[in-house]
Amino acid sequence: MKKSNLFSSCKVLVTFFLIAFTLAPILLSSHPWPNEGRDYLFENASNETGASNSVSAIYLGYRAMDTLGETLVLLVSITGTMTILVGLVKKEKSDSPNTFLLTRDKRKSNQLRTHLLEVVSGKLGPIVLLFGFYVMLYGHISPGGGFQGGVILASGIVFLALGNQSEKETKLNNPIVLARIEGFSFLALILASTSGMLMGKGFFGNPLSHISANFIILLNIIIGLKVGTSIASMCIAMMGRSHDD
Amino acid sequence: MMIERTLIFMIFLVGFWAIIANKHIIKKIFGLNIINAAVVLLFILEGSRIGTQAPLLDMQVTNIVDPIPQALMLTAIVISVCVSALALALSVRLFKATGSFDIDVIQERLSHEQ
Amino acid sequence: MNSSNLMFTPIVLPLLGSALILMVKSFSSRKGRIIAEYMGSAIGLLLPLASLFVLYPVVREQGFLQQVVGSWDPSIGIMYRFDGLSFLMILLSQLISIPAWIYSRGRGPKENTFTALFLIQNASIAAISMCSDLFNLFVCLEVMGMTAYVLIASSKKNAAAFASFSYLLFSSTAMVFFLVGTYGLYRITGSLSYAGITTMIPEPNLMSSVCLVLITVSVLLRVAIMPLSFWLVPAHSKAPHAVSAMLSSVLLKIPLFSLVRILSLVSIGSDIGLVVSYAGAFTALFAVLLALSQKDAKQLLAYHSISQIGYITAAWGMALHAGVTSKTGAFLLSVAFFHALYHAMFKALLFLSVGTTTDYANQRNVYILRGANAQLRTSGEKVPITMLCYFVGALSITAIPPFNGFFSKTLLTYALKETMQYTLLTLAGVGTLASFIKLSRIYLPAKPTGQEETKPFPKSIHIALSVLALFCIAGGVFAPQVFNFIKELLASHPEQEQLSFKFFTSSNLLKVLYTSLGGIVLFILAVSKTGTKLLSLLKNLPRSFSDAFFGFAVSIAILVYVLL
């Protein structure tokens, strides 16, 4: 046993040093950073895409295919995580007195948790939602955009779900409604990306470029809704409520 | 200049060490997060060397930083978060199935289950 | 819609299908969902074949179609290029996805998100085949990998969760190294597209070579040549059968051929190709020996996947070494793809048929399981289609004429004549035959143990298996025509001569005879006392998780050392 331990720790050390020596010339290099990209974008980003935030202009305009791939990674990952977690949560007992499946007056508080959480987060929920929409819609002018706004939307929905204090709850906590918005926005994203093709501008081209250059706002809204609702439905599934088939 | 790159290199090596040497699954996943964070920092830090102002083109900016690494890293951050989420869900499932977080113990218990 | 817009349809159509499925899933009842699934998969799996059909004449006459996504300036946008290689890769993935999906209707994962994820995987495969941009390759490889992790973990077994976890960890770490390589190349050249990178590397210096090595090894990890193949056996053997078929047949080959685009444009690509080719030949032999020692049927097939991908990589490496635009290089690349296509067909057939058999017989151990056909008959199968299709697949992989494996393996070993790879690959052929004799023993007659089942055997299994078996037979009968088709799409000089290689010469047939005799001898040796002892030594080689990264580091080190 000791010999195999020595052997495996030797292998680990050899791996570590090989990788360190191989990566050192790349990570520590001081080659001058190229500025062709920066110069091109400085001249043209605002005119061609209508966004003055040049980072948004890149990832929703010039390199929109990367954003499509990123949205797909998010979709697949959330689907997989939800399938795994819902299978596990169902197996647990869902009749403990602290579970989120019950409303506030039926839940017992104990010394580990009080009702402070629900009171505060319930009141903050709509404000966070508003902030999320702001970040999403202003993503082409100031730092922000679809992904950032979407994640804030998701946390707003989680606040509302945590702060739910009565039997009536907002439709946004209903996993079915969230799944419908998510399905719609994914379909809308695919249709928006192909609409450029029909207008002769190529895949992901701006179909309305003669009216305005602001295709980015539409893409921001769609991506924000998609990301927000999918992350929110995963969090709500972790709280015990899931979209029962 | 060099000191920042060296520090990022060390963060990278720390994360890599966690992935290869540590036996606890959750620490391996955190090692993956650390490596991703190191690469993100590297891209953005080095891209900011050629300018001094944020890449928002409305005010009278003259010398913006390179916006391309920032856009690439937005994508990379989202992908790394998604991978970590899936990995953590899988580790919860493995824990419920075998009762341990140590990767050698898990491998042994699962092979005995067959 | 002109043809350069049509080139994006293999990406858009599967995504459209999966979006439809996901939307209908949240709205309507069970019946609506089933209709939506069939419609979505028709859009996503059948319509791309139609668009490939329309694009074929365009690719033949123009050579390639190139477009920047969104029609922006090429220096800043993402370039997509559809040429003969993309056509073949998308054709390969569609030809295997359709039977795999049909199989899954009968026996496969019954989750309602399976089809949507399957279609997203197809879309990502189409995107990888066409992209000419380094960061976009990273994103599309991550999409493909993510769908693979989730599909593997959809099996209810706990070992599948571990297989998915180790594949995930290993592959995501490799992708971080890919990002470091991209960082280095962007720093030197200021561009992320292949054309931009290769025009701006002045001459091979240390940093650009190391970056290219990092990118190559990270992508080759998904191709699973040794020493990078620790993740493959658990992942392919524990996944659901339709997913295993897709993984072994398609997902191992697409990253390999996507590397051709970048490595053929840089000068160190030929050195990398030579080293990888030797690694491939060693993999072919070593994996077959490991396969001989396995007792689980699907693990045996998984080791054979590694071995066959070693064959393909050996030819691919030599193609890069000779230069893909030269005559020998184009020939070798066509041979590599020829074997990749035929391997995809018979490996999918083997996984699906062996999977069905072990499911209905409730036993995966090849030493214990006997009389599988009788088990299948008591489970409701009237005509022994599963056993027949298994034998078609087994005869194909062991290269017996007139099935398709004979043609592709003979051509491949001929193309690599007089090199060390030739001997290694021939020996591997002997080993393949021995281990398939071992696997086929499960069909030896024995008494069935179960009750007579009155449930009807799912028709979709029979349809899927028959389609794949038909592909194998047709591939064998029409082999010269198929090879010429491939060669014309991959060569840059379309007026090259037709294949003058004769398949049915006496020397080839004698070789088949010798290989078969050698295989039988090896099998007898392997089941003898000393043979079993030696093989169990091999099987129980301790293999811990950190060995995977050791192999990764060693392969990077070897390549860097060779290039300097």
Topology:
The complex is a heterotrimer of chains A (245), B (114) and C (564).
Chain A: H1 2-27, H2 36-49, H3 54-62, H4 64-91, H5 116-137, H6 146-162, H7 175-198, H8 215-238
Helix pairs in contact in A: 2-3, 3-4, 3-8, 4-8, 5-6, 6-8, 7-8
Chain B: H1 2-21, H2 25-47, H3 67-98, H4 103-113
Helix pairs in contact in B: 1-2, 2-3
Chain C: H1 3-6, H2 9-27, H3 30-62, E1 64-68, E2 79-83, H4 84-106, H5 114-130, H6 134-153, H7 158-189, H8 194-200, H9 206-221, H10 232-238, H11 241-251, H12 254-263, H13 269-292, H14 297-322, H15 327-361, H16 372-378, H17 385-397, H18 404-415, H19 420-440, H20 459-477, H21 479-490, H22 506-527, H23 529-539, H24 546-563
Antiparallel strand pairs in C: 1-2
Helix pairs in contact in C: 2-3, 2-5, 3-4, 3-5, 4-5, 4-11, 4-15, 4-20, 4-21, 5-6, 5-12, 6-7, 6-11, 7-8, 7-9, 7-10, 9-12, 9-24, 10-11, 10-14, 11-15, 13-14, 13-19, 14-15, 14-19, 15-16, 15-17, 15-18, 15-20, 15-21, 17-20, 18-20, 19-22
Please describe what this structure looks like.
The complex is a heterotrimer of chains A (245), B (114) and C (564). Chain A is mostly helical and 245 residues long. Chain A is 67% helix and 0% strand. The longest helix of chain A has 28 residues, at 64-91. The model of chain A has no long low-confidence stretch (mean pLDDT 81). Chain B has a single domain, classed as Orthogonal Bundle (Helix Hairpins). Chain B has helices spanning 2-21, 25-47, 67-98, 103-113. Chain C contains 24 helices and two strands. Chain C has helices at residues 3-6, 9-27, 30-62, 84-106, 114-130, 134-153, 158-189, 194-200, 206-221, 232-238, 241-251, 254-263, 269-292, 297-322, 327-361, 372-378, 385-397, 404-415, 420-440, 459-477, 479-490, 506-527, 529-539, 546-563; strands at residues 64-68, 79-83. In chain C, helix 3 runs parallel beside helix 5 (114-130), helix 6 (134-153) packs antiparallel against helix 7 and helix 14 packs antiparallel against helix 19 (420-440). The chains are: A mainly alpha (245), B mainly alpha (114), C mainly alpha (564). Chain B binds chain C through residues 16, 19-21, 25, 28-29, 32, 35-36, 39, 42-43, 46, 68-69, 72, 75-76, 79-80, 82-83, 86-87, 90-91, 93-94, 97-98, 103-104, 106-107, 110-111, 113-114, and chain C through 135, 139, 142, 146, 149-150, 153, 158-159, 161-162, 164-165, 168-169, 172-173, 176, 179-180, 183, 186-187, 296, 544-546, 549.
